[in-house]
Design a protein that fits this description.
With about 200 residues, the protein is an alpha+beta fold. Helix content is about 35%, strand content about 25%. The chain is built from five helices and nine strands; from the N terminus they run E-H-H-H-E-E-E-E-E-H-E-H-E-E. A five-stranded mixed β-sheet has the order 7-6-5-9-8.
Length: about 200
């Protein structure tokens, strides 16, 4: 029996109320997720630099130990990224964003579209990307609760994100149109100049 079999609709804790429609659902791509959230390339460079330094010093035994530690660390990163991607579903409706996340303990985070202050699209290439969200008012979500579905190192004021999703630009456009139906929207161009009016500042979304 799956731990998610209780969901009436995958990714949602209950049936949407009358008038609420699902506009998009998706999950992170684990390969892009491990590269982006865990910075796997920097980890590889870190271990490679230490190993090279030990080899130059002539300490082959220590180099082998560090190499083994690096392999274990990277394997754990990849395994956790795979589990996080497999268990995560992002759902956009005409009223809210729902992040069903959590590997050991699953949870659903509801983000009303009326509470979104800004959305920024971070392209990764190949059509993949992440959408970083800023919320109005004081922070109500803890960074550990959201991670890795949060902008890195924004601990005091966490920013939820749709991380490493396919067709990120298309999802950003859908999000833009949905928010536009809820509140006035401000779009900023590449020079950060407002080109429309409203409280919502979107860069690429």
């Amino acid at each position: 029996m799956s731990e998610y079999e209780h969901e009436p609709i995958p990714g949602l804790p209950g049936v949407p109320p009358e008038g609420e429609r699902i506009l998009w659902q998706g999950s992170p791509d684990f390969r892009h997720m491990v590269a982006n959230a865990w910075h796997i390339r920097l980890t590889l460079l870190y271990f490679a630099a230490i190993i090279a330094w030990l080899v130059v010093r002539g300490d082959g035994g220590a180099a082998l130990v560090v190499a083994a530690m690096g392999v274990v660390a990277i394997a754990l990163f990849i395994a956790f990224a795979w589990a996080a991607a497999r268990t995560s579903i992002y759902t956009l409706t005409n009223q809210r964003l729902v992040l069903r996340i959590g590997v050991a303990l699953n949870k659903c985070v509801n983000l009303p579209l009326s509470q979104i202050e800004s959305a920024d699209l971070k392209a990764m290439g190949g059509g993949h990307g992440s959408i970083v969200l800023s919320l109005k008012g004081a922070p109500r979500l803890g960074y550990p609760m959201l991670w890795p579905h949060a902008r890195s190192l924004r601990i005091v004021r966490p920013q939820p994100m749709l991380r490493a999703i396919p067709d990120a630009a298309g999802v950003a456009r859908t999000l833009f149109r949905a928010v536009q139906q809820i509140q006035p929207v401000t779009v900023k161009d590449a020079s950060n100049t407002p080109v429309a009016t409203g409280p919502y500042a979107g860069a690429g979304a």
